[in-house]
Write a structure and sequence with these properties.
CATH class of the largest domain: Alpha Beta
Order of helices and strands: EEHEEEHEEEHEHEEHEHEEEHEHHH
Number of domains: 2
Mean pLDDT: 90
Structural class: alpha/beta
CATH topology of the largest domain: Rossmann fold
Strand order of the largest sheet: 6-1-2-5-4-3-7
Number of strands: 16
Largest sheet: 7 strands, antiparallel
Bound molecules: nicotinamide-adenine-dinucleotide, FE2/S2 (inorganic) cluster
Shape: globular
Helix content: 25-40%
Distance between the termini: 19 Å
């Protein structure tokens, strides 16, 4: 069991957990993730590692409630525990001195982008960060991103905070202003990463995206996370999650990620009907007919 040392909402539906996980905290590098399971029969879900603290033997993860499992997870509180946390998984981000790097974080993807931005800054890069969210309430990690960036540009889709628009509007402005950009890293929803890739392809700017396909074992054995890169099958859990954005087949990623949408929606609807958040919390130790 992995004890939750601290749990807090960063935004509606988005929760940060600080978890006691000494071995992962010692080994974690930016760009990596964990796969966790909250009860015996539960599904395994990949989750972003936002930070780690080897001295305190903790990692922090950020979870957006989307399906049944993430709703259950977000009902946990300080003092509760998570059954399995496996990791760190995936290849770390390639950190070196590129020059000027634009880090794009879309919504909860900002949590994955943050440790990479911090490491790139530490490696001597000029880091320009673009953080986007649907509205003001959903902007996360602004303070943290400011601490590791030379400049931070914020956008909200509805204009309720900072500049109205998408992250790609800021990226376009940087490109049109003639800003020298040596690398773009984009983490967020697939449509955003695809839009960034299309924009930078024309400009020949090397671009890396962090992919989030469905994952099961996280070891390259089950094939669940298969993605198409430059026409070849690769597994995001061991060959990624970061890939050259200009080689990613985003349509295959969308298609595979929506394969179980109906089952996921049914499961979430059943969960909402049958359990209150408090009952969900109990299900961690004593699931009643729980399904993945
Ligand atoms: P969201 O839908 O609120 O979008 C966040 C931002 O992305 C928007 O504010 C906008 O700036 C940008 N964006 C959205 N659509 C765009 C478009 N068509 N063109 C250009 N920019 C666009 O994001 P959310 O609800 O926070 O969802 C986050 C998504 O990120 C989830 O789908 C989650 O699975 C994914 N995610 C990915 C990773 C990863 O490693 N890639 C990690 C965590 C989460
Ligand atoms: Fe099974 Fe990647 S999650 S192969």
């Amino acid at each position: 069991m992995f004890k939750i040392i601290h749990a807090e909402f960063l935004a509606p539906g988005i929760k940060r957990f600080v978890i006691e996980a000494p071995r992962i905290a010692r080994k974690q590098k930016p760009g990596q993730f964990v796969i966790l399971r909250i009860y015996e029969e539960g599904e395994r879900i990949p989750v972003t590692i936002e930070n780690s603290d080897p001295e305190r033997s903790t990692i922090s993860i950020v979870v957006q409630a989307a399906g049944k499992t993430t709703h259950l997870l977000n009902s946990l509180e300080t003092g509760d525990a998570i059954l399995d946390v496996v990791g760190p998984l995936g290849k770390p981000s390639e950190i070196r001195k590129y020059g000027t790097v634009v880090v794009v974080g879309g919504g909860v993807g900002t949590a994955m982008a943050y440790p990479t931005a911090a490491a790139l800054k530490q490696a001597g890069n000029r880091v320009l960060s673009i953080v986007g969210a649907r509205n003001q309430e959903l902007v996360i990690l602004e303070k943290e991103m400011r601490a590791v960036s030379d400049a931070v540009m914020i956008t909200t889709d509805d204009g309720s905070y900072a500049d109205k628009g998408f992250v790609t509007d800021k990226l376009r402005q940087l490109i049109e202003n003639g800003t020298r950009i040596d690398l773009v890293i984009a983490v967020g929803p697939i449509v955003m990463m695809k839009a960034v890739a299309e924009m930078t392809r024309k400009e020949n700017i090397h671009t890396v995206v962090s992919l989030n396909p469905i994952m099961i074992d996280g070891t390259g054995m089950c094939g669940g996370c298969r993605v198409l890169i430059d026409g070849k099958s690769e597994f995001a859990c061991v060959d990624g999650p970061e890939f050259d954005a200009h080689k990613v087949d985003f349509s295959v990623l969308v298609q595979r990620n929506t394969m179980y949408r109906d089952a996921e929606q049914r499961s979430l609807a059943e969960y909402r009907h049958s359990k209150s958040a408090e009952a969900g919390k109990c299900a961690v130790t004593a699931p009643q007919g729980a399904q993945a």
